[in-house]
Amino acid sequence: MQFSIDFEDLERKASDAKMKVILWSNPHNPSGRMWTEEELKHVAEIVKKYDLWIISDEINCDLIRKDRKHIPMGKVMPDYKKLITCMSASKTFNMAGLMFSNIIIRDEKIRMQYSERDKTIGFVNPVSLDAHKAAYEKGEEWLEQLKEYLDNNFKYVKNYLEKYLPDAI
């Protein structure tokens, strides 16, 4: 069983004049489903067709299965001005309490409006900044070990279910 997108339903909802924005999770949270480039392009076509905003939550993009590659929505929509991407090392490195993220807003006017309203713009906790910098610059070996550990846990659960609860699969 795999989580999938009902593209007909998505397009029907996107065509509603009241629809203004799609909140997208890439990879999908909580399933961890990695979207294919073809699926991402299909979503992008719908978004563009109805001139919608798309906020792509890519905070889990580093915490994926070993030997898999995340495809950012920004790669699929390189020139689309109504794309906002949210990323952070917080989930992958268990630093959510440090409250630090990267919000990439292509549209300059919207970026300025966001900056004017966000009460934390201009105030960055130096511990948060250093922790995220360290995670990105020095955390690769730890992250690869974590991915291997998690992949082994998935294998263990799969084998257990196959052996003791085959109807659960």
Structural write-up:
With 169 residues, this protein is of the alpha/beta class. Helix 3 (73-76) links the parallel strand 2 (53-57) and strand 3 (83-87). It has helices at 7-14, 37-49, 73-76, 108-117, 126-138, 140-164; strands at residues 21-25, 53-57, 83-87, 102-105. It has a single domain, classed as Aspartate Aminotransferase, domain 2. Helices cover 43% and strands 11% of the residues. Helix 1 packs parallel to helix 2. 17% of the residues are buried. The mean pLDDT is 92. It contains 6 helices and 4 strands, in the order αβαβαββααα. The chain has a 4-stranded mixed beta sheet.
Count of beta strands: 4
The largest sheet has its strands arranged as 1-2-3-4
* Unreliable spans: none
Shape: flat
CATH class: Alpha Beta
What's the N-to-C terminus distance?
A: 8 Å
Tally of separate helices = 6
Structural class label: alpha/beta
Fourth-level CATH superfamily: Type I PLP-dependent aspartate aminotransferase-like (Major domain)
Strand residue percentage: 5-15%
| Mean model confidence by pLDDT | 92
CATH fold category name: Aspartate Aminotransferase, domain 2
Instruction: Give the radius of gyration.
Output: 19 Å
Q: Per CATH, which architecture?
A: 3-Layer(aba) Sandwich
State the major sheet.
Answer: 4 strands, mixed
Domain tally: 1
Helical proportion, percent range: 40-55%
The H/E string reads HEHEHEEHHH
Q: Helices, strands, pairings?
A:
Layout: H1 7-14, E1 21-25, H2 37-49, E2 53-57, H3 73-76, E3 83-87, E4 102-105, H4 108-117, H5 126-138, H6 140-164
Parallel strand pairs: 1-2, 2-3
Antiparallel strand pairs: 3-4
Helix pairs in contact: 1-2
